[in-house]
Amino acid sequence: MKAAELRQKDVAGIEAEVKALQKAHFGLRMQKATQQLNNTATLRSTRRDIARAKTILAEKQAAK
């Protein structure tokens, strides 16, 4: 997800997005542990998406 898309959402929307990304990342980690994950680059991209969303969330909360 791009930063511009996240900046358009409100705080509750970003929090929901972070929760969904964390759930997806957990699923990918479990697939990796059971040797079912084909594309390991998705782990890196979801981790970075989580960080991006948390950064924008912190910016929005600090602006209040």
Features of the shown structure:
single chain, 64 residues, mainly alpha, 81% helix
Secondary structure blueprint with pairings:
Elements: H1 3-8, H2 11-33, H3 41-63
Shape category: elongated
Q: Compute the number of strand runs.
A: 0
SS content category: mainly alpha
CA-atom Rg in angstroms = 13 Å
Low-confidence stretches: none
Total number of helical segments?
Answer: 3
Please give the alpha-carbon distance between the first and last residues.
Answer: 24 Å
Query: Level of helix content?
Result: over 70%
Strand content: under 5%
- Average pLDDT for all residues: 95
Topology pattern, helix = H, strand = E: HHH
Task: Summarize the main sheet.
Answer: none
Could you explain how this protein is built, in words?
- The chain has 64 residues and is mostly helical.
- It has helices spanning 3-8, 11-33, 41-63.
- It is elongated, with a radius of gyration of 13 Å.
Describe the structure in brief.
This protein is mostly helical. The protein is built from three helices and no strands.
